[in-house]
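To whoever is on call:

I kicked off a structure prediction for a single chain this morning and the downstream step that reads the tokens threw a length-mismatch warning. I double-checked the sequence; it's 185 residues and nothing unusual in it as far as I can see. Pasting both halves so you can look.
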Amino acid sequence: MPEQNKIVIHTCCAICSGYPLSYLKDMGYQVIAYFYNPNIYPDSEYQKRLDAERTLCKHFDVELVEAQYNPQEYYDFVKGFENEPEKGLRCDKCFELRLLQTAEFAKSVGTECFTTSLGISPHKNFEKLSQIGEEISKKTGIKYLAINFRKKDGFLKTNEISRELGLYRQNYCGCKFALNHIFIP
């Protein structure tokens, strides 16, 4: 039987998930942070982001579940979309993969709903993420909560949390395709 007060949140990185974790706890949820990001490249970058997420979850006393890191799973899922521009169909496929796995995980631990920290970033299309989450909800039977964490200065608050805790701050979304589009002066 699902537990009413539990929620699984897909966490992409500690910077993006700081405010969402605190917000969900303030709403009364027992939060499970699910770190599933096979898109992150290279392995050393993945480890930095995971270490920061561990620090954040410990700070907020949130359970962290670390999914298996298997980059090939991501490459197989986005095959044929490698040359898409940033914020294009490859990114949509990446969101789909990560949200689908999060919903499946949520189902496996008996929670009724899931969400993601991805939408707090002003670089992500909240409406598109919500649409993908709703489609996955229909497939899995697990409710997707489309929470716009950007509201009420959420992006500012999440950055303040990361600064206060001295968390690792990345300069690209995560995949090797995005890494190729970074401008470093």
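Update from on-call: the warning came from a stale cache, not from the record. Cleared it. Sanity check on the structure: The CA atoms of residues 7 and 31 lie 5 Å apart.
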